[in-house]
């Protein structure tokens, strides 16, 4: 059975595998055919076949049918996006997004999920199995009790910044200084500055930017890496890896550079995701020797970032 809990009348990496029409000859010389598993629509969560879709976007209407944690709903929506480029590119990223929601071990599986659990069926001999997706299904079922209807992440001593025009919210430590920018040229929206310390040569900062970007997530990795090398003096890329941001597929780059004016070595962490032809970018910059000191606070800032659909 595919992982498309909502289902979709679409083929995607999170749906059941499709039937292959070409026949295969086995070791005994007998012609056999692969057999598709699952159906075109799986309605394990709502109990209703997903026939209602947005005419303009092709997205499925379903949230009004179940009271589900909005963050979990965002993950499900990402799995079955009409535009395949906006779905999780790998099962690993989908699983990583689900794991970030597992904040409690005391929740119980809703009775509706238990009631809708499909009965085991005999497996045909010739089935094409998408092993990576099967792994996500198994582990996702194991952690669902911890994320459905769970409370939002709460961070003590944090304030909330919200930009309704861009549909974004993010939390930051109350001890940090906030600077609203909204720069139409650099696309920087807001900056959070760490508390100023005695003899502090550089004030650590987290910058949130939102800019237009119409390419794919993989393409953005190359474009952003190139931009960093061109913009920052003596830039050195330490790590480029996939991750999640706002419960969506994302990339992150850790790199060092130099502040020519102050003659300081800087270390940076840039993480971004894409949605609706926009890039949402969070960049943490610190003096290299002070970088690790503020990482716990920065991780909470990044974890709190949300994009409202």
Map the helices and strands.
Layout: E1 24-25, E2 31-32, H1 70-79, H2 91-99, H3 111-115, H4 131-143, E3 158-163, E4 168-173, E5 177-180, E6 188-193, E7 205-212, H5 217-231, E8 236-245, E9 248-259, E10 264-275, E11 278-287, H6 295-304, E12 306-307
Antiparallel strand pairs: 1-2, 3-4, 4-12, 5-6, 6-7, 7-11, 8-9, 9-10, 10-11
Overall number of domains: 2
* Average pLDDT metric: 73
**Given the structure, what is the number of helices?**
6
Q: List the secondary-structure elements in sequence, H or E.
A: EEHHHHEEEEEHEEEEHE
What is the number of strand segments?
12
The spatial strand order of the largest sheet comes to 5-6-7-11-10-9-8
| Category from helices, strands and their pairing | alpha+beta
Fraction of residues in β-strands: 25-35%
Q: Quickly name the level 1 CATH class of the largest domain.
A: Alpha Beta
The CATH architecture of the largest domain comes to 3-Layer(aba) Sandwich
Which of globular, elongated, flat, extended, rod-shaped describes the shape? globular
What does this 3D model show about the protein?
The protein has 309 residues and is α+β, with helices and mostly antiparallel strands. It has two domains: 24-146, no CATH class; 158-307, 3-Layer(aba) Sandwich (Protein Transport Mog1p, Chain A). Helix content is 20%, strand content 26%. It is built from six helices and twelve strands. The protein has a seven-stranded antiparallel sheet, sandwiched between helices. A hairpin with a 5-residue loop joins strand 1 and strand 2. Helix 2 runs parallel beside helix 4. The longest helix has 15 residues, at 217-231.
């Amino acid at each position: 059975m595919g992982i498309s809990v909502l289902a979709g009348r679409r083929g995607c990496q999170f749906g059941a595998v499709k039937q292959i029409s070409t026949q295969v000859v086995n070791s005994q010389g007998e012609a056999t055919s692969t057999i598709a598993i699952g159906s075109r629509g799986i309605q394990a969560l709502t109990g209703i076949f997903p026939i209602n879709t947005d005419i303009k976007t092709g997205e499925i209407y379903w949230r009004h049918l179940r009271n589900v944690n909005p963050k979990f709903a965002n993950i499900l929506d990402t799995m079955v996006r009409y535009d395949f480029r906006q779905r999780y590119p790998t099962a690993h990223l989908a699983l990583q997004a689900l794991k970030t929601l597992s904040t409690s071990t005391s929740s119980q599986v809703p009775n509706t999920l238990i009631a809708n659990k499909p009965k085991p069926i005999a497996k045909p001999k010739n089935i094409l199995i998408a092993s990576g997706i099967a792994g996500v299904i198994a582990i996702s079922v194991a952690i669902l009790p911890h994320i459905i209807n769970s409370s939002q992440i709460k961070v003590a001593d944090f304030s909330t910044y919200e930009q309704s025009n861009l549909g974004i919210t993010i939390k930051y430590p109350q001890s940090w200084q906030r600077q609203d920018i909204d720069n139409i040229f650099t696309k920087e929206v807001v900056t959070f500055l760490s508390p100023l310390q005695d003899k502090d040569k550089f004030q650590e900062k987290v910058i949130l930017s939102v800019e237009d970007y119409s390419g794919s997530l993989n393409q953005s990795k190359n474009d952003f890496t190139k931009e960093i090398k061109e913009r920052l003096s003596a830039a050195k890329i330490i790590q480029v890896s996939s991750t999640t941001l706002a419960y969506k597929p994302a990339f992150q780059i850790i790199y060092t550079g130099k502040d020519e004016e102050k003659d300081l070595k800087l270390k940076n962490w840039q993480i971004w995701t894409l949605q609706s032809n926009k890039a949402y970018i969070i960049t943490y910059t610190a003096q290299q020797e002070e970088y690790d000191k503020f990482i716990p606070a920065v991780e909470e800032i990044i974890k709190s970032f949300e994009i409202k659909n």
